[in-house]
């Protein structure tokens, strides 16, 4: 279970969503590492069939089985599962109807594809069902198999329907295994053991989609978690200079003096370099001003917020550990 000194003590299912391009899978992977740190066991699940987990951990495509993929700081283990809806359907038929062989025959006939096409929500039920089963699963000693499960979920635009579809299916099936299964899933998804985290950038469209997603989630009675602001660029220019540049009052003459004092350039060359630098400073100041406004907008959601640095060398395994450590430092895991 999560450490009691984290912001999400007691949460066992961490759902991670975000607009495309915000680094949703990267954040989910780093969160799994952060949660596993200190000797815990965490399952990282993906549901969109993109093999994003395999790519980010530099592994071959993952089969439909839970397997260890990484060791977290201080000895924790991260396992991964790439859910295949067809295999989940076969498991479902065997679990509730004892019909695995019949299910394989139906698969060959294309009935499974037909069923999930006619009722696309059923595919989401299978996927969320497999995930929540991992959350509930216990070993022979009665203890939970996984201390936490991290779900790399669909994008923000459809996260509410994806998580709430079990309730819709339960409404269609009044009795029987499907209804019971849906109620089990819904019981986990809407419980205090679940938190839906949003990944965003400090840009207008991702921020607005995040705020809309949080609003929809709350309207559906689903548990909003935290906001992970990804790819944050640290400013190396003093705030006073940025404020001056935003107002158009930055004096390139100060740069000329600095260039001369440092022995970098002199005369006309120093003036030309100073003018170019002043333009870049003005652009940087404008961007940081916009980012400050987006931070304020996110703050209105009233959720915990975590800022993750832009990785200069791109996202590799070392970068994932860096992000995981940043999460732990900020109390997210």
Automatic annotation (TrEMBL):
Start and end residues of each ArsA/GET3 Anion-transporting ATPase-like domain: 13-180
Pfam short name (any one): ArsA_ATPase
InterPro entries in the cross-refs: ArsA/GET3_ATPase-like, ATPase_ArsA/GET3, P-loop_NTPase
Molecular functions per Gene Ontology: ATP binding; ATP hydrolysis activity
Cited PANTHER family: ARSENICAL PUMP-DRIVING ATPASE ARSENITE-TRANSLOCATING ATPASE (PTHR10803), ATPASE RV3679-RELATED (PTHR10803:SF31)
Protein name: ArsA/GET3 Anion-transporting ATPase-like domain-containing protein
Species per Swiss-Prot/TrEMBL record: Nonomuraea jabiensis
């Amino acid at each position: 279970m999560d450490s009691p000194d984290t912001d999400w003590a007691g949460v066992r299912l961490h759902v991670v969503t975000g607009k495309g391009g915000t680094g949703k899978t990267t954040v989910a992977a780093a969160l799994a590492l952060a949660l596993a740190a200190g000797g815990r066991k965490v399952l990282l699940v993906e549901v969109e069939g993109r093999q994003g987990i395999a790519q980010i951990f530099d592994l071959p495509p993952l089969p439909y089985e839970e397997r260890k993929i990484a060791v977290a700081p201080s000895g924790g283990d991260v396992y991964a599962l790439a859910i295949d809806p067809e295999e989940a359907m076969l498991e479902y038929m065997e679990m509730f109807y004892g019909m695995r062989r019949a299910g394989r025959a139906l698969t060959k006939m294309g009935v499974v594809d037909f069923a999930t096409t006619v009722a696309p929500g059923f595919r989401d039920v299978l996927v969320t069902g497999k995930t929540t089963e991992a959350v509930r699963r216990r070993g022979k000693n009665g203890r939970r198999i996984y201390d936490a499960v991290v779900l790399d979920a669909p994008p923000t635009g459809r996260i509410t329907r994806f998580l709430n579809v079990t309730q819709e299916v339960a409404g269609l099936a009044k009795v029987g295994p499907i209804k019971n299964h849906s109620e089990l899933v819904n019981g986990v998804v809407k419980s205090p053991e679940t938190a839906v985290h949003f990944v965003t950038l400090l840009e207008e469209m991702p921020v607005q989609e995040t705020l809309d997603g949080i609003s929809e989630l709350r309207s559906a009675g689903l548990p909003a978690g935290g906001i992970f602001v990804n790819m944050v660029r640290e400013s190396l220019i003093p705030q006073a200079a940025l404020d001056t540049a935003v107002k158009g009052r930055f004096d390139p003459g100060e740069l000329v003096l600095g260039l001369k004092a440092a022995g970098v350039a002199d005369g006309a060359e120093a003036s030309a370099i100073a003018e170019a630098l002043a333009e870049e400073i003005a652009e940087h100041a404008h961007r940081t001003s916009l980012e400050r406004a987006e931070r304020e907008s996110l703050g209105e959601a009233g959720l915990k917020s975590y800022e993750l640095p832009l990785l200069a060398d791109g996202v590799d395994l070392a970068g994932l550990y860096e992000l995981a450590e940043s999460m732990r430092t900020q109390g997210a895991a």
